[in-house]
Structure prediction request, 269 residues.
Amino acid sequence: MGQARAWTGWACSLLGAVGALVVLGAQAPVTTTPGARQKGAFGQFTDRAQWQMPIRVMDEIGVKPGMTVADVGAGDGWFTFYLADRVGPSGRVIAEDIDAKALEAVRERCAREKVSNVSVLVGGTEDPKLPAGAVDVALMVNVLSALGNARNFLGNLAKSLKPDGRLVVIDWNPGKLYPQMAEQETKAALSQTLRQLQDAGFEVVKTLDFLPAQTMWICKLPRGGAIDPAEAMERRRRVGPAEATRGPCISLGVPSGLPPEREGVERGV
Prediction:
């Protein structure tokens, strides 16, 4: 994510705890001396591709040639060009951000590398301004926790999805960044993310925890498409939190560790 939209809720507390590790509004921890080992969840990694695992992420969320994918909060396009490689010349990637300067870096790289399947879009603080009904997958990496009004933003984003489109949210997991954090606090933070998605009318169909520092939620809209966020909140109020979060694929527990086989550096950027 380029320029931060607005920090709110548990993200403010996480920012204070993470301190120098996380740059406000950025998708990645602060840059360190090349080759230097980082602390905490990043101690064994020297390259973002090692801990972000973009190839596996795209495999898990089903990004395929010919798709239209929105990189929401794209910043300078770190994930954008992985997506562009995957969707191929018959597909399209929309790099969205509120930071026009960061998106200029995307334009420059597209021109330099002759990438023709990426377009840039300057969005708003509460509306990504994506084309209606055009997106197969909307990817938000370290963006949801930085939104000032997640319900409005996600409600507007929902209008851009095709009937079978998916929203994929990847965000920092405080328990992974700081294992000493109380389990109850970690669960509260993850539960807040789940509530934000449900309040915007999304159904979380799968939660994945293979990333060393983040959690991933794969979401879809209910049959019939986007619903009014106020209606979604009222439904959750009626059925109660236990029923609203019920589902065979949802897990809010903190993972025990890394996957059995850690991905290596998949591509230099």
